[in-house]
Amino acid sequence: MPVSEAQLANLKTSKPANSAATNILRIVAILAVIGITIYIYSIRDRVEEFAAYGYPGIFLVTLLANATIFLPAPGVAVVFAMGSIFNPIGVALAAGTGGALGELSGYLAGFSGQAIVERTDVYEKIHPWIEKYGGWAILVLSAIPNPFFDIAGVAAGMAKMKFWKFLLFCWIGQIIKMAMFAFAGAYSIDWIASFYE
Fold first, then answer.
1. d(Cα 174, Cα 180) in Å, to the nearest integer?
2. Of 165, 128, 149, which is closest to residue 76 (Cα–Cα)?
3. Are 178 and 80 in contact (CB under 8 A)?
């Protein structure tokens, strides 16, 4: 099918796929992710101190722990311990909300298009799930304790999943996961203490 001159002119004047504003946002996103990760990794030994501030402290601990990408930071251990001190439902809500907001760093890394995990075996296995199941894959992967959720966040960002959709499904999954740890902490500490009565 021949291309008319009008169609050819439209092709020449159409916007490129990546505008300058999108490229700037991507650069800002990757720089923010790198900066957050470096900062949180540098204060990782003092993160537990935030737990002394109750639910807001639990929120901050999980926010900071989940904002790092590929570098371990304490988080669920604090949730486990705080579940025995505070109401486990409150702990799950505070920790799940902080965890979901912290996971946005992985999403932003993927959105930036500068993801270094794109060619890893784990990414190759997770990315099709994100493409096929979308938010449900995010919910399941964030609800189960696994070290690969950062890669799922990156895959969601690269797949250009809607921001609100990623955040909502991640939040629900994080609350489920944090509730498991909070209730485990509440009941296991009581169970261990019963041996000493």
1. 10
2. 149
3. no
pLDDT in tens, 138-196: 999 999 987 778 788 888 888 888 999 999 999 999 999 999 999 988 887 666 666 66
Rounded distance, CA 17 to CA 192, Å?
59
Q: Which two tokens stand for residue 31?
A: 């720089």
Question: Which candidate, 85, 77, 84, 51, places its Cα nearest to that of 189?
Answer: 84
SS in 3 state form for the chain? CCCCHHHHHHHHHCCCCCCHHHHHHHHHHHHHHHHHHHHHHHCHHHHHHHHHHHHHHHHHHHHHHHHCCCCCCCCHHHHHHHHCCCCHHHHHHHHHHHHHHHCHHHHHHHHCCCCCCCCCHHHHHHHHHHHHHCHHHHHHHHHCCCCCHHHHHHHHHHCCCCHHHHHHHHHHHHHHHHHHHHHHHHHHHHHHHHCCC
> What are the residue boundaries of the structural domains of the chain, listed by start?
32-194
pTM over 0.90: no
Q: Say how far apart CA 146 and CA 125 lie, in whole Å.
A: 14
What is the end-to-end Cα distance of the chain in Å, rounded?
Answer: 86
